[in-house]
Design a protein that fits this description.
- There is one protein chain.
- The protein is an alpha/beta fold.
- Helix content is 45%, strand content 16%.
- It is built from twelve helices and 13 strands.
- Strands 1, 2, 3, 4, 5, 6 and 12 form a seven-stranded parallel beta sheet that branches. Strands 8-7-9-10 form a four-stranded parallel beta sheet, with helices on both faces.
- Strand 4, helix 4 and strand 5 form a beta-alpha-beta unit.
- The protein is elongated and about 105 Å long.
- It starts with a helix and ends with a helix.
- The relative contact order is 0.13.
- The structure holds beta-D-galactopyranose (GAL) and calcium ion (CA).
- Beta-D-galactopyranose binds next to helix 2.
- Calcium ion binds next to strand 7.
Length: 353
């Protein structure tokens, strides 16, 4: 009798343990978020790092994500993609190191079971590549001029408002122009369209110098060091294709005694960049820099995550989104001009942890 109860009791204990075990397993599976395999081409690129942060923030409670740093090396990034797919990533979101590597990434995603790929920031301009895979998409900013027409118009407005900017009084803008990485889709168009916008406004400019600063502060500072010692006060406007380079130019001319006291500086050269990074906004506020063009990293990150979620749920990628996808399967977030007058809006955009 005793033995029978003992066996019954043991059976009961085992049954409870199994149920508990089973349910905790189930619970675990239910709680597990799908993996978003995300990566930026380089963490040294300020703007890309902000998109990475935006993706991480927007993924909270939606995806398990760890934004990889491609270290500006395509083979490193290829390995990262392999690892993401091996871990079971449901969607890949990447700013590729080298845009010509896009077909290889697509191949990997297809082989892993037709995993969708959302490219961002670095646009894959070869439309054949984008059309080669129905689950490849792009999220970025307005294409063609990549914000440079707005930048050009800002230069024109400032020039008209400040006759003192024409230091030599010849009616022309003496400009220096910092171009992005020539291998990047936005670099050349920005350089062309900013100058076009100045011309289209009926103004004339003289190009004292232009060269690439590779999107980077340090490179831009080196270029500017050479230009400021060569041209000094003859420079009437500094155009930078992104803020990281604008900040390098600022550091350079400040060391040469320019823009040291905001817009009240005795020696002053106006600078306008693109991106409206937080580190630039404080310089606009102090008047050390004239303005920038907001490229909305936060919204881009949110759109990437929402599209990824829709794809995982088997819905149309644009379901519930307020943006449109164009024929190149690109979703483009508009640029906005930023000066001291509307800083609050840009600050809000970058308010992320
Ligand atoms: C641009 C951005 C630059 C840099 C570049 C690199 O859109 O304005 O700051 O991030 O992309 O891909
Ligand atoms: Ca002039």
């Amino acid at each position: 009798m005793k033995r029978k109860y003992m066996i019954l009791f043991l059976c009961f204990v085992i049954a409870v343990a199994l149920t508990a075990c089973g349910s905790s397993n189930n619970g675990g599976n239910q709680d597990k978020l799908p993996i978003l395999g995300a990566g930026i081409y380089s963490a040294s690129d300020n703007f890309n790092s902000y998109i990475g942060k935006a993706i991480t923030n927007a993924s909270k409670g939606v995806f398990e994500v760890n934004v990889e740093d491609g270290q500006n090396d395509q083979s490193t990034q290829n390995n990262q993609v392999d690892t993401m797919l091996a871990k079971g990533a449901k969607v890949i979101a990447l700013s590729v190191v080298d845009v010509t590597a896009a077909p290889r990434i697509i191949e990997k995603a297809k082989e892993a079971g037709n995993v969708p790929v959302i490219f961002f920031n670095k646009e894959i301009t070869n439309s054949y590549v984008m059309q080669s895979y129905d689950r490849a998409y792009f999220v970025g900013s307005t294409g063609v001029d990549y914000g440079a027409t707005i930048q050009g118009q800002m230069i024109v407005d400032a020039w008209k408002k400040h006759p003192e900017f024409d230091k030599n009084g010849d009616g022309k803008l003496q400009i220096v122009n910092l171009i992005g990485d020539p291998g990047h889709t936005a670099a050349l168009p920005r350089s062309t369209f900013v100058k076009k916008a100045i011309k289209d406004a009926g103004l004339d400019y003289e190009l004292l110098a232009e060269d690439t600063g590779m999107w980077l502060t340090a490179n831009a500072k080196d270029k500017m060091d050479a230009w400021i010692s060569k041209f000094g006060d003859r420079i009437e406007f500094i155009i930078a294709a992104n803020d990281a380079m604008a900040l390098g130019a600022l550091a350079s001319i400040q060391a040469a005694g320019f823009n040291t006291n905001g817009k009240d500086s005795k020696k002053y050269i106006p600078i306008i960049g693109i991106d409206a990074l937080p580190e630039m906004l404080s310089k606009i506020q102090s008047g050390e820099v004239l303005g920038s063009v907001l490229q909305d990293a936060k919204t881009q990150g949110e759109v990437i995550v929402k599209m990824a979620k829709n794809l995982v749920d088997g819905k149309d990628p644009m379901d519930g989104l307020e943006y449109q996808m164009d024929k190149d399967k690109a979703v483009r977030i508009p640029y906005k001009p930023v000066t001291a007058e509307n800083l609050a809006e840009a600050k809000e955009t970058y308010a992320m942890n």
